[in-house]
Amino acid sequence: MTTRILIADDQEDIRSGFRLILDSQPDMTVVGEAADGEHAVALARELRPDVVLADIRMPRLDGLEVTRLLAPETRVVVVTTFDLDEYVHTALRNGACGFLLKRSGPALLIEGVRAAMAGDTLISPQITVRLLSRLTQAGPVSRPAAHPLTEREVDIVRLVARGLTNAETGAELFISAGTAKTHIANVQAKLGARNRVGIAAWAWEHGVAKAGAEAD
């Protein structure tokens, strides 16, 4: 099935760049563009895309409000230049299926759309690592405890805690991105984590993440 995407960004060159990236994928097509938040909401309700990519700072309605109005009926991935923690928390609280930085590159943009379609939440690795590393600053990390994970799954968890994508995790462990995705799904089930952010939080909280990983 083809994923139908709406792009909402007030910069025409950004919209054009995203369209080129996404339309190059055999399973994706851009069905509309909006230069402001109100138009984005109206187009989303008219075209009913599978995924909306929304910038945060747009005229008339910002991306956070667009997310609140459209989610959860429509999957919204926030793609922005601004990585303030307040924006991340508000976007996710409003129902966003992802929070990506524009500088993260084409591969993560594509993976973010696919993650949203799979019911997952993808956050740019730079943001994930920054947020999770603060868990260790709030107090001592607990000693590694007994858990149901295999040795390979622990390796996967450590890479997720570093903010690596499925493709990067696969490359690190010499497995395919699909195999990495399967391992992550198994880990989520075993840990009761909702998404990869939950996996990473578990790793930091239980001392499974390797010391110094946040600096990678």
The share of residues in helices is 40-55%
Helix/strand-derived category reads alpha/beta
Instruction: Report the mean per-residue pLDDT as an integer.
Output: 86
Strand proportion, as a percent range, falls in 5-15%
Which shape, going by the Cα principal axes?
globular
Q: What is the rounded distance between the termini?
A: 37 Å
Largest sheet: 6 strands, parallel
Tally of DSSP β-strands: 6
- Write the H/E string, N to C: EHEHEHEHEHEHHHHH
Strand order across the largest sheet: 2-1-3-4-5-6
Low-confidence stretches: 211-216
Radius of gyration: 18 Å
Number of helices: 10
Protein name: Response regulator transcription factor
InterPro entries: CheY-like_superfamily, NreC/VraR/RcsB-like_REC, Sig_transdc_resp-reg_C-effctor, Sig_transdc_resp-reg_receiver, Tscrpt_reg_LuxR_C, WalR-like
Organism: Streptomyces caledonius
Keywords: DNA-binding, Phosphoprotein, Transcription, Transcription regulation
